[in-house]
Amino acid sequence: MAYVIAVTAVRDWVNSLTDTLVGPGHPLSRGAFRQLPRSPADGAYAVLSRIGRGGDLVAEDTIDSPRISASIYSGTDDAAEIAAVAYANAIDALRGARAVMGDTRCLVAEDIVGPLLVDNHGSDREQYHYVVDASFFLI
Question: Which residue from 11, 63, 86, 139 puts its CA 20 to 30 A from 78's CA?
C-alpha cells in the first residue's frame, strides 16, 4: 500500500473551502490545523490527527485509507456544534464526488462518526469541543 501525507492533505482541503466552511462568516472560521494554535482568536477551529486506518476499499495497493479525527473547538457550544456539523456535512459530500487535496486525490470519505460532544470544562482550552471522525480513501 502507498501511504500518503493524509493529515496535511485533509487540512489543505478543509482550508480551501473558503466559499462554504472556512473564513470570516463561515462555521469553521479559523480553519483547520495539525496542532493546537497558540493564541486562538474568536471563532471555531479544527485540529486534525490521523488515528488509524479504515478498511480496504479495493484490492489495489495504491490507496491509503487513513482515519482522520477532527477536534473542533470554539468559545460557545452553539458555534462549536455548528462548525462540527458543517465539517461533517463537507465530508459527507465526498461520498459522491472525488476531491483534490493538494497532491492527493480523495476517492471517497465514509464511516463518519460524530459530531460528538467532549466535556472540555476542566481544560484551559476552549470549553466547547466536538469530535468528528471519518475514513478517507486517498491516492
Answer: 11
Alpha carbon distance 65, 15 (integer Å): 21
User: In Å, what is the CA distance from 63 to each residue of 4, 6, 10, 23, 66?
Assistant: 9, 11, 15, 31, 10
DSSP-derived 3-state class of residue 113: strand
Please give the single-letter amino acid code of residue 40. Answer: P
C-alpha 64/C-alpha 6 separation (Å) is: 8
Strand residues in the chain grouped as ranges (E):
31-33, 45-53, 66-74, 99-101, 104-119, 128-138
Q: What is the pTM assigned to this prediction? A: 0.88
Coil/strand/helix, residue 57 = coil
Residues 6+ apart with CB under 8 A from 72: 28, 44, 45, 46, 80, 83, 84, 87, 115, 129, 130, 131, 132
Instruction: Express each pLDDT in 10-52 by its tens digit.
Output: 999 999 999 999 999 999 999 999 998 876 667 899 999 999 8
